[in-house]
Amino acid sequence: MSGQDLPEGYPFQRDWEITPREAAEMMRKGPGAIVAIDCRERGEWETARVAGMTLVPLGEIESRIEEIERLASDGGTVAVLCHHGRRSMKAAMLLRQLGVENAMSIAGGIDWWSRSVDAKVPRYTKDASGCRVVG
Questions:
Q1: What DSSP letter does each residue of 36-57 carry, written as one string?
Q2: Can you list the domains of the chain with their CATH numbers?
């Protein structure tokens, strides 16, 4: 892990991402600091989740934009989590296109959250048959 709690060589994009540790620190500050959205599917959410995050699957972001804007009305960062960081980056890009200028992806997703913030959050694999906890 690097000094940012990300694997060595990870191409971290400061304009688009925050680290899991940064997101956790914002969540501890309470309302107004962050709106934490989990853009994974319900089966993944049921396998592993971070307390305090709102489930809004990637495919529902556009139809739930008013809800997200209401949650973000205090002006905090809108931080999006997925499994490894790909979907959350797509979600952050979509949210910005929809006018949520402070949308960010949580780098490395829930997998890195488990490694760097809270080891009690299960790590899992996902394939066509579903999700399975690993380690």
A1: EEE-S-HHHHHHS--TTPEE--
A2: 17-125 (3.40.250.10)
Check residue 1 and give its pLDDT. 43
The arrangement of strands across the sheet holding 54-55 comes to 17-18, 103-106, 77-81, 34-38, 54-55
Residue ranges in the chain whose pLDDT is less than 70: 1-4
Q: Which residues contact 56 (CB under 8 A, 6 or more apart)?
A: 37, 38, 39, 64, 67, 68
Q: How many CB atoms neighbour CB 4 within 10 A?
A: 17
Q: Where are the alpha helices (DSSP H) in 1-135?
A: 20-29, 42-47, 65-71, 86-97, 109-116
Q: How far apart are CA 55 and CA 82, in angstroms?
A: 10
- Considering the entire predicted model, what is its pTM? 0.93
- Quote the pLDDT of residue 5: 72
